[in-house]
């Protein structure tokens, strides 16, 4: 696969816009997984980071089914994400047989969802691994050196972006607002689902509507999402 430089630049500029606007980690993470899926022909992408207890949590994923696979890894304590996080090294498995050999329980469920290959990049901040970027594919085959480099760059950019948004002091961990983002993920996913069903649109479009509404009203994304879930937002407010 030929990863076009123009596409990478456009993705970086889009993610950087969150930093320029002093936006929210949730917004940055959702843009990151969406662009990784498009740039690297991944059928699913998950972005996991540590919470305040130094436990991995899912911050963003695309599509919705990816959440189940990511959470399964955490529950079973096995899978490419955990290996990359614990070792600080890239984990790449190109075939369904190799997946089953390394992580039998994880591979069995992944296969049911059509996942037969994975490329996982550790997310590092200030010399320490704080998470992992998982790239899943529904077809077998190893990632090319160029694709691997792009994946590393996107993981690094995500780490730098989150760290900058959180104003983390040298040597400190991602905490305050990131923990809030992790806590808000469930309500955000519920709101996306509610809007997607209400307007019959893709969840990514539903997320863009939520984000636009939050910006228009100068409010936090989680607050708008909570109102959607509680059915307090009138449909007209999030149609655009």
UniProtKB/TrEMBL annotation:
Pfam families tied to this protein: ANTAR, GAF_2
Domain ANTAR: 168-229
PROSITE patterns: ANTAR (PS50921)
Gene3D superfamilies associated with the record: 3.30.450.40, Winged helix-like DNA-binding domain superfamily/Winged helix DNA-binding domain
Keywords, in A-Z order: Kinase, Transcription, Transcription regulation, Transferase
SMART domains registered for this protein in UniProt: ANTAR
Protein name as annotated: ANTAR domain-containing protein
Gene source species: Kineococcus halophytocola
High-level lineage: Bacteria, Bacillati, Actinomycetota, Actinomycetes, Kineosporiales
